[in-house]
Structures are given as structure tokens and as C-alpha cells.
Amino acid sequence: MTNPLAGLSMAFNQFGTVASSPYLPTDQQLEGASGVSFRTPRFKRARDITGPLKLYLVASTSAPDTNWHAKVIDVAPGGKQSVITEGSLRASHRALNKKRSTRLRPYHPHTSRAAVPAGRFVPYEIEIWPTAYRVKAGHRLLLRVTSTDLPTHLPGWIRLNKANLAATTVQVDRPAINRVRLKGSYLLVPYS
């Protein structure tokens, strides 16, 4: 469960930032309580991660809709956590275009919303942005899954009224209990 009022930490990344400030910590340790985290053992030798990654997530929510945000993080021996790459998916936009999807890159057309069955475990295929990154020996990977990514992504959605921009509305997700099922969930990481 995520508590947006508990504070945030973010890195300067491909999404940019809402303000350029030296006061936003880039060490992701502050985010530890903001979701569920999974760690690999320490790498005995350096490994190169190249290309896209995919999270296959089996999860449930008590809300009519939610966001899934996944960050792949490099954890140094001293504990510092640095984001390598990330991905996100709106639960109701989980429909896939099978012809355009590949093993590591699910393609979501985002052309329609599918109801999210409250309290039932549903599979989600989440693309994690491609990267080229060397994980040093002694470091480990951490996957953190949350339902919020403030301030980069709003916890909800915007209904744009093109005919009357003043009538545009923002719907914030209501608080929910989100659960991740370990059985069946996995992260595909191409490394050498």
C-alpha cells in the first residue's frame, strides 16, 4: 500500500521532473515503505543489462482502477539505491495488441478501458523502458512495485474535454488496498 503523504524521492529521468530542485533526493531508500520490493542476491561479477525488460505482475486492487509503477533499482553495497529504469501501466488499460507485442515488450494500444474486477487477482504485462546499464560486482537489483509515482504521474486520470477545455476534469484514485501475488509474477531481465 502506498501513502503519498509520506513524502517522495525521485530521480531525474526520461520523464523529466516538475521542477529542477537540488532538494529532491535521488537515493530511492526513502521509497522503501511505498510498495513492495524484491531483491536479487549480490552479483558476484559485473553484469550488463541491455534492452527492454518486462514485468509480469499478478495483482489485485480493492479500487475500480489503479496504477502499477515498477522501478528497477541498483542497490550498492552501502545501501544507496539508484533507479536504472522504470515502467507503468494503468490497470484498466491492460489490454494487449498481441501482433505488436514481443516477449520483452508488451504493446498496449490504450484504445479502450477494461473493467478491473475488485479484489480478484489479474495478470498485467508491464513494459519496463529499455536500458543499457552495468551492474557492478557486489551490487544487487531491486524491483519496487507501487501504485503511485508522485510527482511524475498523477494518482488517477485526466478527462480532457477538447470542445471545452475549462470543463476538463481530474479524477484522483480513491485509497485502495493493492496486493501482489508472488506465484506467477516475475521480471524478465536481459543481461550478460
Computed over alpha carbons, the radius of gyration is 17 Å
Helix proportion: under 10%
How do the strands of the widest beta sheet line up side by side? Answer: 1-6-3-4
CATH superfamily of the domain at 24-148: Galactose-binding domain-like
Instruction: Give the averaged pLDDT, no decimals.
Output: 83
List the helices and strands and how they pair.
Layout: E1 36-39, E2 47-61, E3 67-75, E4 81-90, E5 122-135, E6 140-146, E7 156-159, E8 169-172, E9 178-188
Antiparallel strand pairs: 1-6, 2-5, 2-9, 3-4, 3-6, 7-8
Spell out the key features of this protein.
Jelly Rolls; four-stranded antiparallel β-sheet; three-stranded antiparallel β-sheet
Structure overview:
This protein has no helices and 9 strands. The protein is 0% helix and 41% strand. The chain is mainly β and 192 residues long. It has a domain at 24-148: Galactose-binding domain-like (Jelly Rolls), CATH 2.60.120. The chain starts with 35 loop residues before the first strand and ends with a strand. It has a 4-stranded antiparallel β-sheet with strand order 1-6-3-4, with no helix packed on it.
